[in-house]
Design goal:
Layout: H1 6-14, H2 23-29, H3 33-40, H4 45-52, H5 62-68, H6 72-80, H7 84-92, H8 101-104, H9 109-116, H10 121-129, H11 138-144, H12 150-158, H13 162-177
Helix pairs in contact: 2-3, 9-12
Length: 180
């Protein structure tokens, strides 16, 4: 691999197996974090972003796998370096359960804050409305957690307008908490 150009590495690392996993997915799934770090060390920022957006058979991206693998420090560094447009792309991806990255980070205030930084109220509102396959939006998922963190809910709601808050809360109370 050392003798390959960045473009050749990118093409090689883009190849997916029968489970639609790339080498990066496989390295993370098997806890080969040193290998993972080595694989991406010479790539350009845009190449890394494109590789990390590739979804496996469960529609999880490398970002999902980093979260699942508890590679929080690397994930934070990667998130910090994302442009606003790239953050939105990452946040809009839904896995096979329909969960977005926000659905999966509802117990990690620092990630929620990091992702929402620089986004406007309309962008955040649209993300918070996104429903998973069980029909739960990000905000209803946050409220339904057994040990939900009020600071996370506050962070989510502090970044949208009063009308957007009312719309979200009305629809979530009506859809999630009242009997059919």
């Amino acid at each position: 691999i050392k003798n390959l150009s960045k473009e050749e590495k990118f093409k090689l690392f883009s190849i997916q197996n029968n489970d639609k996993q790339t080498l990066l997915h496989i390295a993370l799934t098997n806890n080969h974090f040193d290998l993972f770090d080595k694989l991406i060390e010479d790539l350009e920022k845009n190449q890394i972003f494109d590789l990390f957006q590739i979804q496996d058979k469960d529609k999880n991206t490398v970002y999902h796998h980093l979260l699942i693998s508890n590679k929080f420090d690397l994930l934070k560094e990667l998130i910090k370096n994302l442009s606003k447009e790239e953050k939105l792309k990452v946040l809009k991806v839904q896995n096979s359960d329909g969960d977005t990255f926000l659905h999966l980070t509802l117990n990690k205030l620092d990630f929620v804050e990091l992702f929402l930084k620089d986004l406007n109220s309309d962008e955040i509102f649209n993300l918070l409305k996104t429903k998973n396959q069980d029909g739960y939006s990000v905000i209803s998922s946050a409220l339904k957690q057994v040990n939900y963190d009020f600071n996370i809910i506050k962070c989510l709601l502090d970044n949208i307008t009063k009308d957007q808050k009312l719309t979200l809360l009305k629809s979530n109370v009506r859809n999630d908490f009242l009997p059919s």
